[in-house]
Amino acid sequence: MNFKKTILCIGAGYVGGPTMAMIAYKCPQYKVTVVDINPERIARWNSDDLPIYEPGLDEIVKTVRGRNLFFNTDIEKGIKESEIIFVSVNTPTKTYGTGAGMAADLQYWEKTARQIRESAESHKIVVEKSTLPVKTALAMERILTSMNNGIRFDVLSNPEFLAEGSAVKDLEDPDRILIGSRETPEGLKARDELVEIYANWVSEERIITSNIWSSELSKLVSNAFLAQRISSINSISALCEKTDADITEVSRAVGMDSRVGNKFLNAGIGFGGSCFKKDILNLVYICRFQGLDEMADYWEGVVKINDYQKERFILNMLSAMFNTLAGKRICLFGFAFKANTGDTRESPAILIAGRLVEEKADLIITDPQALKNAMTALSDINGQINYVEDPYDAAAGCDAIAVMTDWDMYAGLDFEKIYKSMTKPAFIFDGRNILDHEKLFEIGFNVYPIGKPALTHF
Ligand code: NAD
Ligand code: UGA
């Protein structure tokens, strides 16, 4: 079949896979290929057991795979054959050298740029899909044009705003699509080509364009603002616990101001996920680099409050359970960094599990999707942990349950049955405020929510 456009995506991860599946689904006239250096990942994209769990993704991939969506490892061929190349490789926090623990590690990104340069035989539009420090496009352009071989490259910034667990919905009905370009005739022409792709299913007023640096920076700032809201509400949850105020009530009252809005105001054990922390630290690093220390300190505070919230949760557990957790069985309900995903990257549960093992507690972890990733994340301490799929079996014989992930299914469990199977006194620490605390208290549990008075029988 003759396709109208050939699109390549380098990086078949949480972003590359679902994003390209959606483009292929909405645009049968385009051929979309996703490549990766990791052959196992590609094999799973070509199987019935996709490498990531996202509600609704299996159906879409099944519809388009082999029709106009293809997964393979032949990066060179993919580059040669495509007109538009999205790059969605990982950009983790640097762990070495200058900027270690703060700056973005751009090695995967730069390797990709060099590979595009070496394999390209004709004009390419290269789209930054990964989240990158502001001004990365300049480095990209310099690398791409360094061979002086007459091949034209136009670099665009098109950051991705999907959230895990709702990726399909976010891609299908995005709040906005942002496309940054050079404001030259060629840059604007490339931008219009990308606009045309999204216009297949996204309405015109939601496709916004800007200069390329604003686009790169807007992505970092969007994540920083979202994370800042969570740290703001979590900081207030600590004060609520000291003053008998209730964080849910405060959050409702504050969020009903239409200027503030009610989303992202749920207090909990802190934000996780592969991006918030890394992107804020990246912003902090850029500020320091530019000599803007006050600004850097301000944003760094968001991460500090997040760490404080996790530590506070552990200290509350310790103090509620008579200042010793040694030999006590503690069941973690959930391990994913949020509901509806199997992803455990930067999950607050990782630190909490590690701290509980340090306190010599016996740990049981249950999660409907994330057990495999949990085992990998905790490989250093796996000897002290049991992984149990069924939440009833997991809780049986435990002294305490600690809710780590806001899976809907936990609110629907039969807690009378769970209570009967547990050691007494039985404790519940609801790190996500998703359970019916009054009811649990009536059943007999000692209940410790986040940011509200504890309900105890002592
Ligand atoms: P990921 O780790 O899941 O996937 C990245 C993939 O790139 C991996 O499969 C890796 O093997 C591949 N890769 C690395 N170097 C390569 C190379 N030289 N050639 C080919 N493939 C290569 O990462 P992700 O979660 O998809 O994130 C990718 C980018 O998107 C990051 O910059 C991230 O900040 C951003 N982002 C992520 C999300 C999210 O929800 N995960 C949302 C928005 C933006
Ligand atoms: C986040 C952003 O929401 C996306 O827009 C962005 O594209 C993405 O990061 C990225 O750049 O990677 P994600 O991390 O997948 O998406 O998930 P979120 O829904 O933002 O949740 C992040 C963390 O915050 C989770 O641990 C969640 O439990 C926590 N959270 C969220 C709260 O503690 N309280 C809230 O009110 C909301």
Bound ions, cofactors and other small molecules, one mention each: nicotinamide-adenine-dinucleotide, uridine-5'-diphosphate-glucuronic acid
- In whole angstroms, the N-to-C terminal distance is 73 Å
Gyration radius, in Å = 24 Å
> What is the mean pLDDT?
97
Query: Can you tell me the residue ranges where pLDDT is under 50 for at least 5 consecutive residues?
Result: none
Structural class: alpha/beta
Number of helices: 18
Number of strands: 14
The strand line-up of the biggest sheet is: 3-2-1-4-5-6
Shape: globular
Give the % helix.
Answer: 40-55%
Major β-sheet annotation? 6 strands, parallel
Strand proportion: 5-15%
What is the fold's blueprint, element by element?
Elements: E1 5-10, H1 16-26, E2 30-35, H2 39-45, H3 57-64, E3 69-72, H4 75-81, E4 84-87, H5 107-119, E5 124-128, H6 136-144, E6 153-157, H7 167-172, E7 177-181, H8 185-198, E8 207-211, H9 212-243, H10 247-255, H11 276-289, H12 293-320, E9 329-333, H13 348-358, E10 362-366, H14 371-377, E11 385-387, H15 391-395, E12 400-403, H16 408-411, H17 415-421, E13 427-430, H18 437-443, E14 446-449
Helix pairs in contact: 1-3, 9-11, 9-12, 11-12, 12-13
Descriptive report:
The structure is a single chain. This protein is of the alpha/beta class and 458 residues long. It has helices at residues 16-26, 39-45, 57-64, 75-81, 107-119, 136-144, 167-172, 185-198, 212-243, 247-255, 276-289, 293-320, 348-358, 371-377, 391-395, 408-411, 415-421, 437-443; strands spanning 5-10, 30-35, 69-72, 84-87, 124-128, 153-157, 177-181, 207-211, 329-333, 362-366, 385-387, 400-403, 427-430, 446-449. A 6-stranded parallel β-sheet has the order 3-2-1-4-5-6, with helices on both faces. It has a 6-stranded parallel β-sheet with strand order 11-10-9-12-13-14, sandwiched between helices. It has a two-stranded parallel ribbon with strand order 7-8. Helix 18 (437-443) links the parallel strand 13 (427-430) and strand 14. Helix 1 (16-26) crosses helix 3. The protein is globular. The model has no long low-confidence stretch (mean pLDDT 97). The chain binds nicotinamide-adenine-dinucleotide (NAD) and uridine-5'-diphosphate-glucuronic acid. Nicotinamide-adenine-dinucleotide is lined by residues 10-16, 36-38, 41, 75, 88-91, 108, 111-112, 130-131, 160, 162, 164, 274-275.
